Amino acid sequence: xxxxASIENMKILVVDDNEQNRTLARIxxxxxxxxxxxxxxxEEGLAAFEREHLDCILxxxxxxxxxxxxxxxxxxxxxxxxxxxVLFLTALRDVDTFDRALKAGGTDFLTKPIQPAExxxxxxxxxxxxxxxxxxxxxYDQVRRQRDELFRLQLLQADLTAFIVHDxxxxxxxxxxxxxxxxxxxxxxxxSRNTAGRIRAQVRELMRLILNLLDVTRxxxxxxxxxxxxxxxxxxxGEIVEVRSAQAEARGVTLRANVEAPVVHADADLLRRVIExxxxxxxxxxxxxxxxxxxxxxxxxxVEVRVADEGAGVPDTMRxxxxxxxxxxxxxxxxxxxxxxxxxxxxxxxxxxxxxxRIWVEDGRPGAVFRVQFPSIAE
Length: 379
Known about the structure:
Shape: elongated
CATH topology of the largest domain: Heat Shock Protein 90
Number of strands: 12
CATH architecture of the largest domain: 2-Layer Sandwich
Helix content: 40-55%
CATH superfamily of the largest domain: Histidine kinase-like ATPase, C-terminal domain
Number of helices: 10
Order of helices and strands: EHEHEHEHEHHHEHEEHEEHEE
Number of domains: 3
């Protein structure tokens, strides 16, 4: 068996019509010691493959002229092209694109924007696997098929989530419309009006949860794009506190707001739902006769919103995981039980990151302080 080639002797072909993508891939791989060959089209990629001895190929899916699928199929039919690893790069994240990449002979499938660490890891794996003997390769192929099927199921799940959310919005809006009609009915009793008001409040909660689910899916796919504008932060926080005051009062909790930053450059709807989720989370975990605070301050480089409660708090070991899907603290963690619906904090993290900001939780001594930073307008 031949000794494995050193990294310095390994050549990687990057085929992408986008110059920035080519540059990022080249710098990332050259920093690891690889030799990188660049091509801006499928035709140039084929010519480079004929000319160079290549160990791996990074291939963009969508290119003018010969696309990535056709280029891969041509490479697979050329001498030496049957076993060279081909890693598809694409901004599309759907089942059809994934299936076409596999059918064309792709070895792996990476979604844009390219993450340098993931790119290096995938290239290293592809090169190592190429050196495996046939027995181990057969075992790997089986594992890869299982991985591909799992990834395909994840894509189908994302599509199904989008369909479900879309179908849920219509009946929820219809319920809200009928509740509004009942509120406007001059002949309706006071009891009916109160019931209609409670229905509208619950409909707003349900719609927020539906939108959270939709935006979590979009955010994980890199498709959550804020529409930024100057937002009256004092007005937004004031409205949210007013709406949540009844819920807080029913739980024996006092709400306090102090807004020193009058405006923030953000997506108004996403901002509102981030603060709503954090405030609801704080109210749910605040003990009776305690205070939940919402503060907004202007720093040199950001606008920071802080939501603090006096509840069980979040232990150090869970302060990153609590923002992941469906993560809840078990009984006794953080000095008590801290539970949630499982997607609110995940949505907050994705929405804040989409703005280029950051979110984290600190010890409130007692309780938890959730801190959100949005970049200043200049940034």
